[in-house]
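Researcher: I'm preparing a figure for a lab meeting and need a structural model of a single chain. I don't have an experimental structure, so a prediction will have to do for now. The sequence is pasted below. Please return the structure as tokens so I can convert it later.
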Amino acid sequence: MTEPALVKDNACFVCGPANGRGLQAQFELDPAARAAWSRLTLPDWTQGWQGVVHGGILSTLLDEVSVHAGRTVGPHPVTAELTVRFRKPVAVGSTIEVRGEVVEVRRRLLQVRSWLAIAGETYVEAEARVMLVRLPID
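Model: Understood. Here is the structure written out token by token.
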């Protein structure tokens, strides 16, 4: 089996406009602050326990915002490692903001801090190592 190429087809589960089953998140980038963010409302189908958003969905959002923050430093960022800390459960239907900031750059390896907040209060946070890959992109 060959490794997949990095092909942008707009079908990403989190941000792909061509993925009708995805979250359709739109991310803003601030290259000067090396940061990215998005604001969205989490629909019912993101539920794990009754009325609570599944932790995997929350982790996925923090992964995605970390990669988008990495785009402010260089092309083709991918997650190498992600550590998530859950502080409080997030209710289905909540309007959330996810933010990520590059806090350190070592060649092609970025350290990114990200968090998910509701009305300014942090519910979930993460640390990510993001790699800027040098693969051909189709």
